[in-house]
Amino acid sequence: MGSIENTGMIPWMYSYDRERSVGSSYLRVIQLTKNHPEFEQYAHGKRYDNLIFQQFCREEMMRRFTGPKILDICDPNWLQYDMEIVQTGSLVHAFTCSSEGLTRLIKPYFPDKIVEHVPDRLDLNTFPPPREPHQGKALKAVWFGYIHNAYETLPQLLPALKETALQLRIIANLPYCEEDGISEWNPEFIYYDRATVYERIREADILLNPRSDRAFFRYKSNNKSLVGWRLGLPVAVTGEDVARLMNPDERNREVSAMQPVVEREYHIGRSAEQYRDIIYRIRQQYF
User: Fold this and answer.
1) Angle 248-265/223-230 helices, nearest 10 degrees?
2) What does pTM read for this prediction?
3) Which of 35, 102, 143, 259 is buried most deeply by CB count within 10 Å?
């Protein structure tokens, strides 16, 4: 039947610069494979008993591989690009999704297959200690991620930034270049560097994680919020959140409530447990 312990993982950014990944390739593959040796980043020419593919790609490889196959979906890319979700999905045995919304979206396409929510989780050993408890009025807010997501989401918080006079730090793969109110607010820009990003985030008082009503954003995970809570920062999604979190008691209250949740539910070992269970169920059902 093969082994549950010999699983190759093919990250979305396998073909280029995966070590600079800000998102799913790092959170869901690189962190997991560094901590759990039964999972490893796919190496050409090596034989695996199980494969986990990220996103909708590599159909020919899916067809040729005869062992258990999982398609790990982090974004609804088929809503933006020319992708045949049903055709590609028919080539695998199970699906894992990074958010509950994405899981609900996928299940109707494949009612007879395993579709499970595997949240984005964190390698807690890579984090510095949380910042000291909050005191006084908040002075600095931080946003981090891919810069195109900042263009989509940050402008909605501009009125709150102006109202509170918060300084804004943006940590991203590229500078903020849109000619809009955020640029006029003159944010501090820092290039994303995995070696230092958590330290730079921790220097702020509030983490900004605004959402968007566009379909692509509607299904994103809460990974930025998890990072903020782990580092001792409360998370502002709306302008009302920004105003509330100017108060240090509110900031400390949120952090105290959410840090234990992150440590209990969102350490990367929980994802390893879920993948092992899914592979076992695939082998029971199909092999």
Assistant:
1) 110
2) 0.92
3) 143
